[in-house]
Specification:
This protein has 12 helices and 8 strands. The protein is an alpha/beta fold and 371 residues long. It has one domain. The strands form 2 sheets. The protein has a 6-stranded mixed sheet, with helices on both faces. Strands 7-8 form a two-stranded antiparallel ribbon. α3 links the parallel β1 and β2. α3 packs across α9 and α6 packs parallel to α7. Keywords: Membrane, Transmembrane, Transmembrane helix.
């Protein structure tokens, strides 16, 4: 089975590689398109990943818009983002997204926020944190693989938006910085913005600020006013009581801050917020056929191209993906794209011209007869 509509074009491959994406990502995407149902089309208008209670997904469905959701609680086998199968399923959904659609993410935040800082050791200066802890490594694994998904959205002209608590340092992870600011790697790409807002203004019981970062051109509209005032809290009876548990020493100084009994309740989005996201995206993007910017051919061919450190993707555990592709090749289930090295590292600077020289040839550089 082959799904032609899901296949990457040579232009998209060239852009991915020029952005510093690992070569194995291209092979994973090709594997998905070669093994997917031939009837699949780019028909999704929204894909909510790490969906939780699927509020944004449901808001799009209520509007009659095609949407999909992905969360480990929905299917622990096929939607575990840390597994090879889970990543393949997520990539299939992304390839099914139409240009101008929305990838909405509630990236798991528990290890990236201030309340976990004592154990995770994550800061803006050290966003990867304490790598001796398995839970921190897993959080980084998810964020690193998600960054690869964002790169795919960029070259497929898909808008993306990620919500995090205001204290999260996730966006400072090196791979997320690369994905959020592709224009630093190659001019012409749509860059991301970060917007702070108050989820409490949509009916949420948390008093802390939230942030939304991504390419969505309407993200600034989430900020209805500068701050959540005391009068707002009293009028609507918003309260964060029970979200945190504070332990003090005998002198009354704070000794420890941990999650309270009601902290888990704050993970769900208010329905007003989800409806707002859907309404803004429909008005600003779907109704106007607006898509994120990508470089023109001149920008692609003549750069500048700034290549990231090859070790930037180490947190994604790419060796597992490479072993999977190699196994599928041995079983003759997959034939890799011959123009892309079968490796976990990105391509080197001197290799990029090979891909830009054949942007109009969908089958890649043509070999001369007899070679």
């Amino acid at each position: 089975m082959v799904a032609p509509a899901l296949k990457l074009t040579n232009l998209q491959v060239a852009m991915l590689l020029a952005l510093g994406a690992p070569c194995i990502l291209v092979h994973m995407l090709d594997y998905v398109s070669m093994t997917s149902d031939a009837s699949y089309r780019k028909d999704l208008q929204c894909f909510e990943i790490f969906a939780g209670t699927s509020g944004v997904y449901k808001a799009f469905r209520r509007r009659g818009l095609a949407a999909a959701r992905y969360d480990v609680d929905l299917d622990k086998d096929s939607m575990d983002f840390t597994s090879v199968l889970g990543l393949l399923v997520a990539l299939q959904y992304v390839l099914r997204m139409a240009p101008g659609s929305l990838l909405y993410s509630g990236l798991p935040c528990s290890l990236h926020v201030w309340i976990a800082r004592g154990s995770s050791l994550k800061t803006r200066c050290n966003p990867r944190g304490n790598l001796l802890k398995s839970c921190v490594r897993e959080a980084n694994l998810i964020a690193c693989r998600f960054s690869m998904v964002v790169l795919v959205c960029l070259v497929r002209q898909i808008w993306h938006l990620t919500e995090q608590p205001g204290s999260s340092v996730a966006r400072h992870l090196p791979y997320l910085e690369l994905a959020l600011h592709p224009d630093r790697m190659m001019m012409g790409f749509q860059s991301s913005l970060c917007q702070y807002f108050w989820m409490g203004l949509f009916g949420h019981r948390s008093l802390k600020r939230s942030m939304a970062f991504g390419t969505s051109c309407w993200a600034h509209m989430l900020s209805l006013q500068a701050r959540l005032t005391k009068a707002d809290r009293e009028e609507h009876r918003w309260s964060s009581a029970g979200n945190t548990k504070v332990t003090r020493n005998r002198q009354g100084k704070v000794k420890n801050v941990s999650g309270g009994p009601k902290l888990k309740e704050t993970q769900s989005y208010p329905s007003k917020f989800c409806s707002r996201v859907c309404s803004l995206h429909k008005t600003w993007c779907l109704d106007t056929n607006s898509v994120p910017a990508i470089p023109d051919r001149h920008q692609l061919e003549h750069g500048p191209h700034n290549f990231a450190d090859k070790s930037i993707w180490d947190d994604a555990q790419l060796e597992d993906l490479l072993k999977f592709i190699q196994q599928e090749m041995l079983l003759e289930h997959f034939v890799p794209r011959s123009t892309v090295p079968l490796q976990t590292a990105p391509i080197s600077h001197d290799q990029v011209g090979v891909y830009f020289s054949c942007l109009n040839a969908e089958s890649g550089p043509k070999r001369k007869r007899g070679q």
